Amino acid sequence: MSSATECVARVKMQVILSTDLQQFFADSGPLANAIPGYRLRPQQLEMARAVAQAIENNGLLIAEAGTGTGKTFAYLVPALSRGGKVIVSTGTKTLQDQLYHRDIPMVRNALQAPVTVALLKGRANYVCHYHLERAKNDGRFLNRDDVVYLARIESYAKTSKTGDRSGLAEVPEDATVWPLVTSTRENCLGGDCPKYQDCFVMEARKQAMEADVVVVNHHLFFADVVLRDEGVAELLPACNTVIFDEAHQLPETASLFFGESVSSSQLIELARDTRIETVISAKDNAALPEASAALEKSARDLRLQFREESGRQSYSAMQDNPAFTTALEVALTRLTDLTALLKSQADRSEGLRNCWTRGIELLSALARWDEEEDRAWVRWIEIFGGSVHLNATPLSIADIFHRQISGNPRAWIFTSATLSVQGNFSHYQREMGLADAGTAFWESPFDYANQALLYVPEGLPEPNAEGFTRKAVDAALPVIEAAAGRTFFLFTSLRAMREARALMETGMKKMGMAYPLLMQGEGSRTELLERFRKLGNAVLLGSQSFWEGVDVRGEALSLVIIDRLPFAPPDDPVLAARIESINAEGRNAFMEYQLPQAVITLKQGAGRLIRDESDRGVLMICDPRLITKHYGKRIWRSLPPMRRTRDAAEVLAFYRRIAGAAA
């Protein structure tokens, strides 16, 4: 298409858009003609008009649209029609791929919109030619599988146009070879890399610069805004619209990137990269490998100070632990020694110079974390299986984020199915610094009164009572039997989920139920969902990973059970510090912060149940606080308008009606 034709097409689209969006969404419009099964939803049209107005006025809009509204099309139609450069940021790479490969092409073709689209991911998603060659020459791997995987990656890198690791399904996503053949912000050589001209990351950024619509994810967006690393900062000046889908995830993501973190893994990676670069460029220097080995040992010793497999701890809890303090001091000393040696060898290669620069940055971050005293920040420790992260997080991100979106006039759209409490957005606005934003709320078009039932069993104890999980499972089993399996059982903790697994196996066997029992951790989320759909009568136990971003339509899922109201644990160091800060100001942290967060999370979990106009099912919440506490009414009124019951007989009758209707 010529540039003149594109210009005419854009002008035509904008004139139509400014006149009325209804023709796009009409039952006989372009979307209906291009998309099988499409039909007009008034909520979708109203949202599209609100988005179009925000784009036209360079405004801020927070828009909650219930499940089934079709919010993706509601923001894509005005965004693609308006012209200019658009960034769409999603919650996960899976949703990012869905937008790029399915949703945007569908809308673009329906509207015949002359827009180009690019997909931009973080650098860790692209094979790095330099590190691939370096790993091959080094030849040291954690296991035999990595040798096989390396050969596959090498072959893929020679033929792939993008280098995107998602295009190589033969190598598992969690394979330990991936960190060896991809780059990080720290170890990328940039323009000094000998493979720079063939760099997949740079090619992806180039395409993003030239595209009209760029699809990113939240982690990438904030990593770039803060670190200026991933290519988004180059896009923003030319961008007239930024759309955040799944925007309820932004507070946590922004807190992560507006803070600062240094990990034992980073120290180990620096030691590893120094050793490899020494073999390449400084074989005559015996001190560097020794210093690298000493740093790696100190980093592993730092992790060994924690017996837990995972968890979070406050900095103050570790201050009185002399073993931790000593291990941290040793790591600082070993890092100082290695950085000094690297300085003397930095001129011998770009790789060694890069290691020296990283050493300086890590040394500064580690020293700052150990010494910093700032009431506006909270220091805390997160423990993983093979590493420990030392974090500093701002108590509030509102002012920081507000500054980030101020400046050049452009539209900012924040949308999700869960942003408000009973249509009130004050919690989200306060948390994100969006006091001036316009807000809009649309109920789901689904007929929840007839499609779903909310069941809170009688006789269950408070969630902190001894034996609660056993009693919750006992109450759940008859409902699972009535539902013929087809159940998501969602838990607020991994410990409760694992306890329930053993209880479920025993209880189902006693009742003669032979439904397949699946549990998070027994495979990837994608694999488990595929098995769940195919089986058609399975019971899946899941924790945080299954509360959102999971779409099972049809008869395979007709019961969602939630064990407890999802209040974040009050001993979480960041939450505890924020609660203390809010209460110190004379405000009520529970009502202002903890309760709204729990409501938003619960809405996400409840949203797994009804995904289509034909879906039917029961939402069972085992937490009696929904009924007994003064705030319970505020919670259930924020859920979709289902019929409510505490009578098990009514639940069984509901399933008999479903079975009768299906017969």
List the helices and strands and how they pair.
Layout lengths: L2 H17 L2 H4 L4 H5 L7 H15 L3 E6 L5 H12 L2 E6 L2 H19 L5 E3 L9 H10 L5 H16 L18 H4 L18 H11 L2 E5 H10 L4 H4 L3 E6 L5 H9 L1 E4 H18 L5 H17 L7 E4 H5 L2 H24 L4 H22 L5 E7 L4 E7 L3 H8 L5 E6 L9 H7 L5 E5 L5 H4 E4 L12 H15 L4 E4 L3 H17 L6 E3 L5 H11 L3 E4 L16 E4 L10 H12 L4 H18 L10 E5 L3 H4 L3 H5 L6 E3 L2 H15 L1
Helix pairs in contact: 4-5, 5-6, 11-13, 14-15, 14-18, 15-17, 17-18, 19-20, 22-23, 25-26
Query: β content, as a range?
Result: 5-15%
**Helix content range:** 40-55%
**Shape designation:** globular
Main beta-sheet annotation = 7 strands, parallel
Strand order of the largest sheet: 3-4-2-5-10-1-11
**Average pLDDT across residues?**
91
Number of helices: 29
Distance between the termini: 54 Å
Query: What is the alpha-carbon Rg in Å?
Result: 27 Å
Please tally the β strands and state the result: 18
The structure class reads: alpha/beta
Spans with pLDDT under 50 lasting ≥5 residues? 1-19
What does this structure look like?
With 663 residues, this protein is an alpha/beta fold. It contains 29 helices and 18 strands. The strands form 3 sheets. The chain has a 7-stranded parallel sheet, sandwiched between helices. It is globular and about 80 Å long. Residues 1-19 have low confidence and may be disordered.
Concise summary:
This protein is α/β, with parallel strands linked by helices and 663 residues long.
